[in-house]
Amino acid sequence: MSLQLRYLVLVLILNLWSSCISAETLPDEALALQSLASKWQVGPGNWAGSDPCGSNWVGINCSNSHIIYIVLSGLSISGSLSDEIQNLPELVHLDLSFNPGLGGPIPRTIGNLVKLRRLVLVGCSFSGFIPPELGKLSRLAFLSLNSNKLRGSIPGELGNLSSLIWFDITDNEISGSIPVSDGTNLGLDMLKKCQHLY
């Protein structure tokens, strides 16, 4: 094979390789983020186009075309959190903290984000009950729901959060007693690793 032909083959291989590793968001995940944005009257400034990973949307980090981090703390986001959040199956970190215009119920579908390790919703205006489905997040280590408008009792299902180290629900309208396991029902006494429980 001639030197020119080898060079041409090498250039072709490099072009194919670079197109394969480009940061193109999987379509379902791009649609999920667009659905989130559609529920917000005020949102992050540069969320434009159809490729959150390739366009470097503010607060979005990706790996292998999957959205793995959403960190939108203190961006004056207002509106609600869409059920479509469940369509981000590789998400490990969700931080929407200190957006007081962000409210409504916490979607039960967050319980489907089984890889989630950090859920930070402090300083927003989320209301309603703490979804018992959060108890399905077995990898969750950090759960901060403080300074919202949550009410009702603490669901015993949160006792399933065996990896939880930090749990804070202060400054809400929580009522009732702390659930304790009794052989039939789960309780927060099952959170053996938890070092911060408020």
UniProtKB/TrEMBL annotation:
<dbReference type="InterPro" id="IPR001611">
    <property type="entry name" value="Leu-rich_rpt"/>
</dbReference>
<dbReference type="InterPro" id="IPR053211">
    <property type="entry name" value="DNA_repair-toleration"/>
</dbReference>
<keyword id="KW-0433">Leucine-rich repeat</keyword>
<dbReference type="Pfam" id="PF00560">
    <property type="entry name" value="LRR_1"/>
</dbReference>
<feature type="domain" description="Leucine-rich repeat-containing N-terminal plant-type">
    <location>
        <begin position="27"/>
        <end position="63"/>
    </location>
</feature>
<keyword id="KW-0732">Signal</keyword>
<keyword id="KW-0677">Repeat</keyword>
<dbReference type="Pfam" id="PF08263">
    <property type="entry name" value="LRRNT_2"/>
</dbReference>
<dbReference type="InterPro" id="IPR032675">
    <property type="entry name" value="LRR_dom_sf"/>
</dbReference>
<protein>
    <submittedName>
        <fullName>(wild Malaysian banana) hypothetical protein</fullName>
    </submittedName>
</protein>
<feature type="signal peptide">
    <location>
        <begin position="1"/>
        <end position="23"/>
    </location>
</feature>
<dbReference type="InterPro" id="IPR013210">
    <property type="entry name" value="LRR_N_plant-typ"/>
</dbReference>
